[in-house]
Amino acid sequence: MTSPWLALAVLALAPLSSLAAGPKVRSVDVTILSTMLTADEGFGEWGFSALVVADGHRILFDTGAHADTVLRNAQALHVDLSNVPDVILSHHHTDHTAGLMTLRQEYSKSNPQALARAHVGRGIFYSRVRGGTEMNVVAGLKYEYVSGGGTFIEYSEPREMFPGVWLTGPVPRIYPERNWSGKGELRMPDGKTAEDNLPEDQSLIIDTEKGLVVISGCGHAGVINTLDYARTKIRQAPIHAAIGGFHLYEASDKTLAWTADKLKEFGVQNLLGAHCTGIEALYRLRQLTDLNRKTASVGAVGGGFRLGAGLDPGSIAR
């Protein structure tokens, strides 16, 4: 029998200089399945997950903080994930990866291809040690996921998953955004160690006629670094919508003011801040970017975004 470890796929990417603006996505629908805030249906948690449908391509972005939260929320919201072949893990933290095996095992009962491709950034499998204990749960999940028929696809640079739908891969840290905790030691394959700054952190970028739609898990690479990279490598377009976690809940007023200035510079039109964005931080960004309740809101379970209709944050967040 072929070793399941061989199912790890590393993409051979075209040179970045060849990336060019291509077809535009016509329909985008994002439904949040995990975050802290919820209203009539579902369960809140410190985590993130969202179903993204772009021109019919169904993608699960992150899998929540507890093994069963996304499964229970999807059932409560009558969201079918059995026809979702692709799952993106933005980074290795448990609040974004804990539901992977529960979802794969549940939905593969009816469809063996459900959540069978996991897209990850290079570095996600690196060892992370804190107090002598291995903290990287994704490294531990790899064998189980692959043994069950799943495949990991690893990205080192931007790659077009579908026409107009891109993964950034690891994002360069051009601006001095420190959007990580600094806890733990990163151990690389060559034996070198460093502070764990989440080098694998990646986001999903959807290119539409209205501009770029960005989905982020935690934005550990920095929301501005991520948006700048998307505009540089995919298309110099305004940011039509930024959705997800942006790790600004502990940001100072100075940091929020700088972030807001850059968001305005990048032409951000819609902002749905969930998970680690922070409620107060979201309200400050709304004020500083001259957005309003219809265009900047806290995200809730069951809420989301639709191209052409705008934000639907959920009843409790409106």
Descriptors for this entry?
single chain; 318 residues; nine-stranded mixed beta sheet; 20 strands; alpha/beta; disordered N terminus
Which spans have pLDDT < 50 for at least 5 consecutive residues? 1-7, 10-18
The total beta strand count reads 20
**Mind describing the biggest β-sheet?**
9 strands, mixed
Q: Estimate the strand proportion.
A: 25-35%
Give the proportion of residues in helices. 10-25%
Set out the fold topology.
Blueprint (H helix, E strand, L loop, with lengths): L8 E2 L17 E7 L14 E6 L2 E5 L7 H8 L9 E3 L5 H4 L2 H8 L9 E5 L5 E4 L2 E2 L2 H11 L3 E5 L3 E4 L2 E3 L17 E3 L5 E3 L8 E5 L2 E6 L6 H11 L5 E6 L8 H13 L5 E3 L5 H10 L7 E3 L5 E3 L3 E3 L6
Parallel strand pairs: 1-9, 4-5, 5-6, 6-9, 15-16, 16-17, 17-18
Antiparallel strand pairs: 2-3, 2-19, 3-4, 7-8, 7-12, 10-11, 11-14, 12-13, 14-15, 19-20
Helix pairs in contact: 6-7
